[in-house]
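Supplementary Methods. Inverse-folding protocol.

Structures were first reduced to a discrete structure-token string of length 521. This string, shown here, constituted the complete conditioning input.
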């Protein structure tokens, strides 16, 4: 049996394998040369004290002990398997497809956007202030919103599926094995595109299909069952249809609603992106002027209740960049990401507050279940009206936002298209703006220096979650009205983030297999 040894080390000692192996051997009362294999199984930073510590857990195998088998995934050929349509190649669609392959089914993965390589070009154009291609941007294309995301893999929904398997699948497709033991695993936007392409290659090499620039524009229904989808003038048929189109595919929600297929308005969250100099966050979190050579860029996670509603930080990106995440030219939407080295001079996070059904009740009569979506759209368009040319985003110094005064100038930013000074405190709906202002003031008491002249809020962070749910039966995971239709992932309202979307995709694949077997497809 391997032995687990947990050491508390300085950041420098934790980076020195020779040092910590000697410590582990000493602790076990053996010679270091008796260690046949040492695997890090957990690493976390404890920065509560003046001097930050690293907690490192090692799994130690001594001489003749049987060692764990290397990570391996075997995907069978599904060339002749039953065809299942998967719409959307985000984490939910990709993991649905991989699981379908494991179960012997042939996924036909339809994606409105382009392959990673072509998509990179469109994203570079957006950052240069070019037009937004509505089918190829930060949300749409190979790998969905996950490809040029930050790649944080932490999730609160570990119980909803095999979290470790999801991480191992990413490692098998090229992610750094460190994600298997880091307390807050992170891939980085520079590494994700290759991993996503490798997953798509697994799907095609196993006999599945991945079809880019294939936008689903309609559903084919017969006697209450979905039998296929429309792409341009063609119909593509399948035994079942998995709808994993993400929360930015507004046309899909509209299509469902217009076809009389049930969708439900749901609460969601909106706000701003907040950005500080990274050295400021480091100095607050590590209690010293410089973080030094051995500590990673510091992060934070903040939450408070303001006037009866939650205000919280979300998707914190240390050493990261704010990016333009809109899907058409009428919106101003921002998000955040960081490269694997987390080495930019800035720290950003989404800072959002709950939006409840009552906030958009006035839109119900006209828009029915699409009311929340329209409210979200109006917020993004409002931000656009206060933006500069192209993707230049509206921003305000945090101290000015909290105090309710104009910013005469703005500090440096990571946001490449640029910023224009704007009174976010004035033009945001009161229900959002007032709570954010008092929430930020509360966070300033928890983290001294958080409310700073050097920090900015940027408009707007509106796509942290979906304003619509596509209802499904909790047992069969099938749409409550349409047999054979399986809503999946974030856009369907059952996930929020890369890993939870991936886990939901796996569960849905299992449900599809049960459905197909029950109907002899
Ligand atoms: C900049 C950025 C940073 C992020 N950072 C993180 C992070 O660090 N950690 C984290 O957990 N999450 C992060 N997220 C969120 C994460 O990316 C999403 O939660 C996740 O991608 C949702 O997965 P999904 O498969 O449900 O949907 P999506 O990833 O949105 O995928 C949906 C796919 O469906 C396609 N599609 C839509 N309509 C159609 C149609 N009609 N026909 C065919 N295809 C269609 C889209 O093109 C898209 O590829 C980030 C997002 C962004 C934008």
């Amino acid at each position: 049996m391997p032995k687990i040894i947990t050491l508390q080390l300085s950041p420098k000692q934790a980076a020195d394998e020779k040092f910590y192996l000697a410590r582990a051997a000493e602790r076990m009362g053996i010679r270091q040369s008796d260690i046949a294999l040492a695997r890090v199984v957990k690493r976390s930073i404890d920065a509560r004290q003046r001097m930050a510590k690293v907690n490192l857990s090692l799994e130690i195998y001594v001489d003749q002990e049987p060692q764990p088998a290397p990570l391996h995934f075997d995907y069978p050929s599904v060339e002749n398997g039953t065809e299942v349509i998967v719409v959307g190649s985000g984490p939910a669609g990709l993991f649905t497809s991989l699981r379908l392959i494991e179960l012997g089914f042939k996924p036909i993965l339809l994606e409105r956007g382009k392959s990673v390589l072509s998509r990179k070009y469109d994203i570079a154009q957006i950052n240069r202030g070019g037009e937004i291609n509505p089918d190829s941007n930060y949300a749409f294309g190979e790998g969905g919103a996950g490809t040029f995301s930050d790649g944080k893999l932490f999730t609160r929904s570990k119980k909803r599926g095999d979290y470790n398997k999801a991480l191992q699948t990413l490692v098998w497709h090229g992610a750094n094995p460190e994600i298997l033991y880091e307390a807050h695993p992170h891939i980085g936007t520079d590494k994700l595109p290759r991993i996503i392409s490798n997953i798509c290659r697994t799907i095609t090499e196993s006999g599945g299909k991945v079809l880019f620039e294939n936008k689903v524009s309609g559903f084919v229904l017969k006697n209450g069952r979905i039998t296929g989808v429309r792409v341009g003038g063609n119909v593509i048929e399948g035994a079942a249809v998995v709808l994993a189109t993400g929360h930015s595919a507004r046309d899909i929600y509209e299509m469902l609603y217009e076809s009389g297929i049930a969708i439900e308005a749901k609460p969601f969250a909106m706000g701003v992106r907040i950005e500080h100099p990274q050295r400021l966050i480091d100095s607050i979190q590590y209690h010293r002027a410089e973080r030094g050579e051995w500590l990673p860029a510091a992060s934070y996670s903040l939450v408070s209740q303001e006037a009866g509603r939650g205000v919280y930080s979300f998707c914190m990106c240390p050493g990261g960049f704010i990016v333009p995440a809109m899907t058409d030219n009428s919106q101003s939407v921002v998000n955040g990401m960081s490269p694997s080295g987390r080495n930019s001079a800035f720290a950003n996070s989404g800072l959002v507050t709950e939006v409840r059904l009552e906030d958009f009740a006035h839109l119900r009569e006209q828009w029915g279940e699409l009311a929340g979506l329209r409210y979200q759209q109006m917020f993004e368009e409002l931000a656009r009206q206060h933006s500069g040319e192209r993707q230049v985003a509206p921003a305000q110094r945090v101290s000015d936002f909290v105090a309710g005064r104009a910013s005469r100038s703005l500090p440096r930013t990571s946001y490449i298209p640029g910023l224009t000074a704007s009174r976010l405190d004035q033009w945001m709906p009161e229900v959002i703006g007032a709570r954010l202002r008092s929430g930020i003031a509360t966070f300033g008491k928890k983290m001294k220096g958080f409310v700073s002249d050097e920090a900015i809020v940027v408009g707007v962070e509106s796509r942290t979650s979906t304003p619509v749910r596509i209802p499904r039966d909790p047992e069969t995971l099938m749409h409550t009205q349409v047999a054979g239709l399986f809503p999946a992932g974030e856009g369907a309202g059952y996930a929020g983030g890369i890993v939870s979307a991936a886990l939901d995709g796996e569960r849905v694949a299992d449900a599809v297999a049960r459905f197909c077997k029950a109907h002899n497809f």
